[in-house]
Amino acid sequence: MTANFSVLLIETDCVETQVQKIMLTPEKFKVIHKTDSTSAWNFLREVNILDLIIFNINTPNSSFFSISYEKLLDSINSQYQLRNVPIILITDASMSTKEVLQKIAKKSDAIILSPFNPIRFMKEVNRLVTKGIGLHIEEIHEQHMSLAKRINQLMELTGESKDIVHKIEQVMILKQLTFEHFDMEESYMLSHNYPDYQQHYDNHDVMRNTLRMLLKNPQERINKGEIENFYRSMFNDLSDDEQYIHFLDEIKITEI
Predict the structure, then answer these.
(1) Long-range Cβ pairs for the range 226-233 (8 Å, 24+)
(2) For position 93, what pLDDT does the model report?
(3) Domain match, 112 and 201 both
């Protein structure tokens, strides 16, 4: 069975870490383990699709160019693709003052004091992975609404205006938004091992080529009929997206 969820674990390589890896069963979770905040920082510069981050803020930095846990958390929260990734912070109970806990609470979704209860740990993992999937579904719906609004505006423009420069500008904006939406969806589909990924990708590629052709020959192609055809293709893609959303609902973790 292939894991559906990717978890970044930032923690020294110790007995507690091994216990966490055992609890994060490979049937459900793909665990990426980084032993300090600097190596996690470098990893996050290249990867932006994760379902959960678990970070022991007491983890020492072995690198000469160390990065504080505050800076790493600020970086995660400032990245567009990572902004909805839930974060569990683990901290030593003996080292955590009320002020520290209040400070880190603003930058995380859950705080677990170490040594921790394994049952509590897995409850938080399951709850937050499910929360993250829900936020991803909301994001898909929001992008669909934005694209539909943009296409409708373009259809009105092609029926009313003869300003080809303005039409080209609007198609370029639509192309950028569409490509970004497709790239985001496809990255998540691969990460979650969506079984119908290839079919979805092929449908996206047809629409990518349609937008490229509109801009390749704008005088002839940017007209109401072509935009309506693209809208129908997008509507069919929305039906495919509903299948993907159903898949996400199915893989949500319900066992707490």
Answers:
(1) 227/151, 227/154, 227/155, 227/158, 228/155, 230/151, 231/151, 231/152, 231/155, 233/203, 233/206, 233/207
(2) 73
(3) no
Q: Give residue 149's domain range.
A: 137-251
For residue 83 the two structure tokens come to 């902004």
- Provide the residue type at 158 as one letter: T
Residue 174 contacts residue 226 (beta carbons within 8 Å): no
**Look-up: residue for tokens 């893989």?**
251
Residue-wise pLDDT for 6-65, tens only, equals 999 999 888 888 888 888 887 789 999 999 888 898 898 887 789 999 998 887 766 556
Residue 95's DSSP bridge partners are none
- Number of residues that this document lists for the chain: 256
How far apart are the C-alpha atoms of 219 and 214, rounded to whole Å? 9
Provide DSSP, 220-246. HH-SHHHHHHHHHHHHHHHHHHHHHHH
Q: What is the CATH number of the domain that holds 48?
A: 3.40.50.2300
Distance CA 16, CA 212 (A): 52
Number of domains into which the chain is organized: 2
